[in-house]
Each structure stands twice: as structure tokens, then as C-alpha cells.
Design goal:
Helix content is about 65%, strand content about 15%. With about 300 residues, the protein is α+β, with helices and mostly antiparallel strands. α1 packs parallel to α4 and α5 packs antiparallel against α6. The protein is elongated.
Length: about 300
């Protein structure tokens, strides 16, 4: 099964006087880059969440955001005025600094400020936070599952696109082989004419030596090896697509090898039809390479 690195999953929940929302978002990346934005007053979340993401994912730039707010009555909970003043002052400094840098920040919400460590003082806060952390970790499993399902769904669509692109590359490779074969009489006639011109304009030239030089030119113009390697790469690409994730890095490397052979083919073409096919081939390979960037 092929997985895409692009996906998003969201969820909401509530229990024991707290409500929360999850957002797990992923885009393509060379490696696995995890960014977790979690309430700082709930301890024991980051390490297990990071471990679960690392176990489930191999590539992508992934951002996990968790927002938690007080929901309803909080018993004897009360504001800590000093902590609130410190929080508001820090927010003011951040906003002022951002304005100096030409940045505009979204206004801070009261619920976000209440979520800062120490602003809301309540009996049994530590115990409640520990219980809440366990609840959140349990709730996260569904979020991670939904994220994986979307990556798989995007991967299935991506697989269909890549299969079609590999088929197109295979078709163009066969067309290049046909064009190369069709140019053979033209190339032979060109070499014969070149040999005749050289002999007519070079008194005392060694005919055998000139023929050897032309033979070397003919070998350099031969594209048999490039076509053979392109066909081999097509086979390798199909095997990787059938294998499933994680194969993104291998497919990216294979796309580079495809492009290398197509470039060499174009440089050796010396024929209008073969050059046209080579350029189509380069375009198809570039389209494939762009899609491969999303494969895990």
C-alpha cells in the first residue's frame, strides 16, 4: 500500500470539566519532522505522542496541535492575578516585538490565556492534569488512525497517477527505440557522405583511419544502452509501486536516473523525430518526479 505524506485529521472531545480539539496535519518532507504544539500545563504528553507518531510515520513534515479549555463550572477554581498579569505582559511584549518586525498576530483568546500554566489555580490541579493527560493519550489513537486512513486514501489516488505516468514513460521509451531504429539508414547515409567528403578533400588521408573515426562517432550516437536502462528503470518503478510505502526516497532517486538517461538520449539523437520523443520523455519524467515528492 502506497501512502501519501499529505493528510489532515481533526477531532474534538470533552470530559471532567475540560474540552479539547486535535489537529494533525502532514505535508511532504525529505525526512520525518515532528512539530508538537501542546498545552504546557499538562505534563506527560509530548514524549508518548512523539513516540506514537514516530512509530506510525516514516516521512513528512507533521504538525500536531492540541487545544484544551475549561468547560463549564470549575468548582473552587480561581484566577491567580499575579500569574495572569505576567501572562498578559508577556503577550503584550510578543505582540509589540512582532509589530516591530512587520508581523501581524492573531489576537489572544481568553480561553488560551486560561490554559497557560498557573493562570487558573484550582484544588487538585496536578492530579486532574495527570488524569486528563491519560484521557488525551487514549483519545489521540482515533486521531492518528484517521490520519493514517487519509494518507492511505491519498496514496491510492497517487498510485493510480504514478502507474499512468510510468506507463507513459514505457510507451515513450518504446517510441524512442522505434525512432532510433528508423534513423539507422539516415545515419548510415550521413556517415558515408561524410567519409566521401573527407576523402575528396584530404589528399593522402588514410581511408581506414577515417573509417575508424566515423565508426567511433557512430558508437557515440548509439542509444541502445540508454533505452535498455530506461526499460530497466520502468520495471524497477513498477516493483516499487507494488511494494508500497515507504518507497518515496527510492522513487525519487529512480526519477533522477530516468532523467539522466533521457538527457543522454536527447544529446545523442541527431534526428528530429528522436529528439521530439526525448523531449516528451523528459516532460513525462518531470511530472512523475513531482508526484513522487508526496510519496512516503
Amino acid at each position: 500500500m502506497l501512502n501519501s505524506m499529505t493528510a489532515i485529521a481533526t477531532a474534538q472531545g470533552a470530559r471532567d470539566g475540560h474540552a479539547w480539539s486535535w489537529e494533525l496535519r502532514g505535508v511532504n518532507g525529505k525526512g520525518l519532522d515532528l512539530r508538537l504544539r501542546l498545552p504546557d500545563w499538562i505534563e506527560g504528553l509530548e514524549a508518548p505522542l512523539r513516540a506514537r507518531l514516530t512509530a506510525a510515520l516514516s516521512r513528512g513534515n507533521v504538525t500536531l496541535t492540541l487545544r484544551v479549555r475549561a468547560d463549564g463550572a470549575q468548582g473552587d477554581a480561581a484566577l491567580d492575578p499575579a500569574a495572569l498579569d505576567r501572562a498578559l505582559e508577556m503577550i503584550r511584549q510578543v505582540e509589540a516585538r512582532a509589530l516591530e518586525k512587520g508581523l501581524s498576530l492573531a489576537p489572544a483568546r481568553a480561553a488560551d490565556i486560561l490554559g497557560l500554566r498557573g493562570v487558573l489555580d484550582a484544588p487538585g490541579t496536578n492530579e486532574a492534569a495527570t488524569t486528563l493527560a491519560a484521557t488525551l493519550l487514549e483519545d489521540f489513537e482515533a486521531v492518528l488512525g484517521a490520519f493514517g486512513e487519509m494518507r492511505a486514501a491519498e496514496g491510492r489516488a497517487l498510485r493510480d497517477v504514478l502507474d499512468g505516468q510510468v506507463d507513459e514513460i514505457a510507451r515513450l521509451t518504446d517510441a524512442a527505440a522505434e525512432a532510433a531504429e528508423a534513423r539507422a539508414p539516415e545515419m548510415a547515409e550521413g556517415f558515408r557522405n561524410a567519409l566521401a567528403r573527407v576523402l575528396d578533400n584530404a589528399n593522402g588521408a588514410d581511408e581506414q583511419r577515417v573509417a575508424q573515426e566515423l565508426a567511433v562517432m557512430a558508437v557515440k550516437a548509439d542509444v541502445t544502452e540508454e533505452i535498455d536502462r530506461l526499460r530497466a528503470h520502468v520495471g524497477a518503478a513498477r516493483e516499487l509501486l507494488a511494494q508500497g510505502s515507504p518507497v518515496g526516497r527510492k522513487l525519487d532517486f529512480l526519477a533522477q536516473e530516468f532523467n539522466r538517461e533521457a538527457n543522454t538520449l536527447c544529446s545523442k539523437a541527431q534526428n528530429k523525430r528522436l529528439t521530439a520523443v526525448g523531449l516528451e520523455l523528459k516532460s513525462a519524467i518531470e511530472q512523475m518526479r513531482e508526484q513522487v515528492q508526496n510519496v512516503e
